[in-house]
## 1
Amino acid sequence: MKVVIIGGGFAGINLALDLANKDQFEVTLVDKNNYNFFPPLIYQVATAFLEPSSISYPFRKLFSGKDNLHFRLGELLKVIPAEKKIVLNNGELDYDYLVFATGAETNYFGMENVKANAIPMKTLDDAIEMRNKLLQQMEQAAICTDPEETKRLLTIVIAGGGPTGVEVSGMFAEMRNGILRKEYPELAGKGSEIYLVDGGHALLSPMSEKSQKNTYDDLRRLGVKIMLNCHVKDYVNDKVIFDNGQEIDTKNLIWAAGVTAKVFEGIPTESYGRGRRMIVDEHNKVQGVDAIYAIGDTCIQQSDPNFTGGHPQVAQVAIQQGKKLAKNFRRISEGKVPEAFTYFDKGSMAIIGKNKAVVDLPKPKVHFQGFFAWLIWLFIHLLSLITYRNRIRTFYNWMIAYLTKDQSLRMIIKPSRQNKSVPEKGIQ
């Protein structure tokens, strides 16, 4: 049975690994990157507290020794359901079952200037780009003689008050109040400001009121300026423009305000629902096509009695759907009836800063805050990393940062933009 998985995030990788060494399956995972990475920690790569290798791992190394798992580097161009075939940018693949686990991409809500100039926070490439850009802005600010330009270089606006926005703003605030004052003494008092903007009435809207209030209060104490009930309207000439008429001059708009799923040629229009997510049944089979499934952020499933509006686009849903689909594929191969997916909510959490976090557990309904919640966040995120190597590296970096109140990974490392041609005769 040929299973082709498009996307190697939480959903795709859990599906593949749960089918490993099952001889009845030949599994091929397709991804445009040759590595799996851990999205909840990309902001720590972006702020130079972790190396990219701490939260990523090559697919081929991960699949080593699992004879029925294969990796294909490529991008999906279209699906041909009638022929059970997909077309990639570098070839074609046949399948018996096709699984979309493509996650979601940044949603700019049609604002082209924001899309062109803001810094997204979705991929490892985004994190590295953000780290390089912000470090370069700091260096430029250190030699700038125009006070207004210096302030624009140092001011950061984060759009989106979910976990990513909260965690990024808290990290920046702690860096500004500690590390950067030591390393950039010439910038003291130059007007560095951090704004966290959200269109809702509270930060971390899916979490409890206690978590929302704790987060708001902790960020305010760190010096973050919070703007609620406020939407970004445009970003032009280093100026963030809001729907209430307010404007902020900055060269740094970080976009963590929303996601949308991807649309693929060959999948009928009627198979897509809200947020361009593929509509699936209780077994994650895509509506309107045969032998095609979708799991994780790219699908919307409304058959779960506890989530009739669809599941939240979070890691635990993707992980659980990947594992359940693997189980159902095994049941199908044995001639058994597949089981319906139901999501087990393990709770929500967000880190705000050192010794500061919030955790909500649904059963029993419990709220934690402060140091204990911070320890829970560290423990859960370490366990969620894909290999022991990742866990050890990340734990080491966290302990160094905690004990020394510093980190030494703030290097600007980027490829040269110059096109270097190879000499025709030999290497000179």
## 2
Amino acid sequence: MTCLEKGWIVRLIWREERDDLRKTTLTTLIKVLTKHWMTSGKEYSLNLQTKELKYYNGSKILFVPLKQQPSDPEFNWLWSYEITYWFVDEAQQVSRKAIDIILSRCTEKIKEYDLVWKVIMTCNPMKCHLYNDFIKPYYNNELPYDRIFIPSLYTDNPFIDHKKYKESLKRADKITKERLLKWNREYDDNPTKLYQYDKILELFTNQWEYWNKYITADIARFWDDKTVCIVRNWRIARVFSYTKNSTKETANIIRWLQQKYWVTNENTVCDEDWVWWWVVDQLWCKWFINNASPLLSEKEKELRNYKNLKDQCYFELEQIINSDKIKIIISNDNEKESIIEELDVIKQKNPDKWGKLQINTKEEIKQLIWRSPDYADAIAMRMYFELKKDERIQIFFI
């Protein structure tokens, strides 16, 4: 309607994949135009070669796929666009980086027509940047004044039989019921997730209390990332997090934790990435190399293999979390929310392809939650000590 009211308006319609854009989003748009008595060749023309729909007054809609390309991970090609409004379909699939860039490109005809630029995004339940930017602030009554969030249930759809649909949902699995019947955005239906959401929540209420024997530390040094230290034996984990510490300060903190909980250097491991030579050299403890080879015998490799040691630790942790074998003690609710959020976005990468098992990369996780998964890394590193044992423990088969 805005394209028809004013000439030379430029709108963008996005989706991650070009094929989905053509088969679903474009098909729906044509249905809407038809319902408003608009016909191709009269009110508008559609060119699938240039991927644009042009109205008779010069306004147009551009159809743009937004899948991140390895050759341009920063989406530099988006800076050439000058647009008025834009719409993202299935926005949970689109990178936050792309959305941030295109927000700055809403300039076309805005000043000339005295318009307020608007962005519309639709999504299905999924833990990603939309959850942090809209859904969580909405339920906490903290949504910024320039954002609106509209929850939508099946009852809002006038074209389906509500009673029949509700009965079918009652027979569905718990995740489907929570998402579509109760509109619980804490659940999503991604089958590649390693850890069950309910089991992540139970990490903080499981009843296990034993003496602590190990320290795992994910180290940061003056960056936005956190240094996370977890003191634990097998069953229980106590979380300590620190920001913007020097490596000397971090080493002193770990020494203090060692003395407080009677943990030896032999049972202390620090993340190797970036700064291990400062912290580990000061402590003379063990170091964890993310890209090291997995710790498997040749016979085990025939059954299950991993891309690297970090991936192996995350997969080994899967049954431990889902079987209620860990209790986590935190000092504040922010730590709890961070741990839940990080573990909930850990997924198996390329599950349909044959090859070594791996999880989504740290860069891909940052695109979802907009920070590094420091808590999750420190929790997963606990598996290192079990993998290093000469005889693997049998807890995986309990």
## 3
Amino acid sequence: MGKGALRNQNPCLCGAPRKFKDCCWGLTDEQIQNKANGKVIKEAGKRANIKTCLYPDKSQCSEGIIQAHGLQNNKILSKLSENGDVYMVDVLFGKNGPQIELVKQGRKKATTFTGFCGKHDTEVFSPIENQDYETGNKMQEALFAFRALAKEWHTKLKSKNMFDGVLKTNRNEYVLAFYEGIMLALDDIEKEMLAFQEVLLVEAPDRISTKLIVFEGEADVAVSACITMSHDFNGKRLEHFTSHPWLTPDQLFITIFPQNGKTFCLLSYDTNATETFAFLDEQLLNKSVAEQKELLSRLVIHHSENIVYSPRYIDALSEQQKTLLKERITESVGFLEDEPLLNRELGISLFT
């Protein structure tokens, strides 16, 4: 193909519906491929949504699957929003591959997922949707943890569905590595449902243990996350991650939210994982308030993208701090199990 013909190729080599000269002219082959990969993933994502109720007993489900919130809209997101908006992390695809950005979203859309029918979203989560959190209320703590699990489960199911489609036409190393990670994560999450079946079906909230930290003042962030920790805060590998390869590692559920002049930080897990997370007492709960804020910031930023930031928090950051925050989040996306991150100084705090 001659140079002139290439310049006028429509669609562009990356797949965009524009002429090559108006889109990718001047980019390297690698940059064009990055844009093409991003377009494939983005289009697959639009077709991959999962609509299902994740409550363990579906016999009483209502017909409609709704847009449920991972963090309560009325009690938490409304408190964080400015002019109806909050900030969340998003992955944008461009010539340099996937890039982490902080994107403004309407609070009615933020953290939503099609993971529950209307009946179960309303009835199951009523104790945390319609009532303030009470310290030591085990059922509320278990429901916060289940909400985090459900949001992460739905995200991974959607990702699997998306990559099932991508793999039909693209089986490069990048795509295969992501798919393998998704399948491992689904195994981890589905194991945790055994605990929540007891919590929800036989009302046994004691199956979930929770460690609580309370800060004075209301933080301008909120978190609902289900994570796998490979190392403790000292950089030591946790045994559950590699010592028993036939078992799946234990999950930690993190819920952080402002309420009545305080910030509540809940760290929850299956009681069968008590030994796994015993280090939290010495390395986190017994630290000073300043150290706790630093360590929790490391834990959340390095392990979760399901963080909601108030515009008040983002607008107070300098451009250098915003860049640093995105760099720290990006580190977690490329996280390797042999590279502990929690023992490194973060340089930015979620609790100002």
